[in-house]
Design goal:
The protein has 372 residues and is α+β, with helices and mostly antiparallel strands. The protein has 10 helices and 16 strands. The protein is globular, with a radius of gyration of 22 Å. The model has no long low-confidence stretch (mean pLDDT 92).
Length: 372
């Protein structure tokens, strides 16, 4: 229970359905040490009290679980290291995999709970075979299945998403208002919860205790175009705020952490026909999906960013030379994903998620873009 309207309505729905519920708020970090306004940080006192008030209204036990050490190690430090290596991390997906459905699910099981329920907008369906399918939410504007690709069959067997079949405005906020929840109109959280104002570079500078090193901004032909004040201040696809005067629009097409350079090029240079992804996790039953992959290139749909429309793809196992092109060493299983239509601004470090209609097949970390 984050103290927001989604988790509060989740608790209400399950309590009303006859489940024995325990409300838990995770304390993830100390806001003061991250430089974030304590009133806007995850697990701040106001949010904890909001969650406690809802639990009291529902008559369910409530507790605060200290996850600061795990969050520091698995999310915050991993986030900083990824940027320093020249990639763009997806901390929400990592947090879901390691913290919410890792540490918190383990805690729930230790308490003897059969399920962990959250306010995510996604669905879990049990199939006739007995396996489970992670699916998109009915409310496509709020669907969060992209961030949940790391859930395995074992975890899906113990997860409930009561909001997956509801709409945020038409159902969830209405239920909260009708039952007098004080957080019924509370705004949704936005951005990275532990980074003040989404200023990643300043956050990392403060954390490391030093300024980011300056370096060259270069063209695709290696011509020096200017200087930067830290390569991680830039993202692939960025156009504005480059600090370079040019006769035509230029875009960030690459970031090389080792050389400490930022490469600018034309918009056409941003287009990629394929990508290599590692750290792969199958949400669908792995043996079945692996068998389909081994038989022939797997036809599916993919997203390389949240709220992107599904893109038709062909998937096969990546070859070692393809993996070597990435900015960081390959981890775990690696796949090559070829798009039917070239994609703009494929960003190493971000998540790529495969779908079969509404069903999430799995996902992984983008290692690098690849040619057609």
């Amino acid at each position: 229970m984050s103290g927001g309207v989604d988790s509060s309505v989740t608790a209400y729905l399950l309590s009303s359905a006859g489940y024995d519920c325990i409300g838990v708020t995770m304390r993830l970090y100390d806001a003061e040490t991250s430089g974030r306004d304590p009133a806007r940080a995850c697990g701040n006192l106001a949010d904890i009290e909001d969650a406690r008030a809802v639990a009291r209204r529902l008559g369910i036990p409530f507790t605060v679980l200290d996850c600061r050490d795990a969050f520091e190690r698995d999310v915050i430090e991993a986030f900083c290291r990824a940027y320093e290596l020249g990639t763009t991390p997806n901390p929400c997906a990592i947090c879901n995999q390691r913290i919410k459905f890792g540490a918190l699910l383990a805690h729930a099981r230790e308490l003897g709970c059969e399920y962990l329920a959250t306010g995510h907008y996604a669905r879990v369906a049990q199939l006739e075979s007995g396996s489970f399918a992670l699916m998109k939410a009915v409310d496509r504007t709020k669907d969060q299945s992209y961030f949940l690709y790391g859930l395995t069959q074992e975890e899906l067997a113990h997860v409930l998403f009561p909001l997956g079949g509801l709409t945020k405005q038409g159902d969830v906020r209405r239920i909260a208002r009708e039952h007098g929840f004080e957080n019924a109109a509370k705004r949704d959280s936005q951005g990275i919860c532990f980074v003040p104002d989404n200023d990643f570079a300043t956050f990392i500078e403060r954390r490391r205790g030093r300024a980011l090193p300056e370096g060259d901004i270069v063209g695709t032909d290696s011509t020096v175009l200017g200087r930067h004040r830290g390569a991680i201040r830039y993202t692939v696809g960025q156009r504005k705020g480059l600090g370079v005067a040019a006769a035509r629009p230029l875009y960030v097409t690459g970031i090389d952490a080792r050389a400490n350079t930022v490469t600018l090029g034309d918009e056409a240079d941003l287009m990629s026909g394929a990508l290599i992804a590692d750290s792969w996790t199958w949400s669908a039953p792995a043996p079945d999906t692996e068998a389909r992959l081994d038989a022939a290139p797997l036809r599916a749909a993919a997203r390389i960013r949240y709220h992107q429309a599904d893109q038709a793809v062909r998937v096969r196992r990546a070859l070692p030379p393809e993996c070597a092109a990435g900015p960081v060493p390959v981890r775990g299983e690696a796949l090559r994903i070829d798009f039917d239509e070239p994609q703009r601004a494929v960003a190493p470090g971000q998540a790529v998620v495969l779908y079969d209609g509404d069903v999430v097949l799995g996902g992984g970390r983008i290692l690098c873009a690849a040619g057609a």
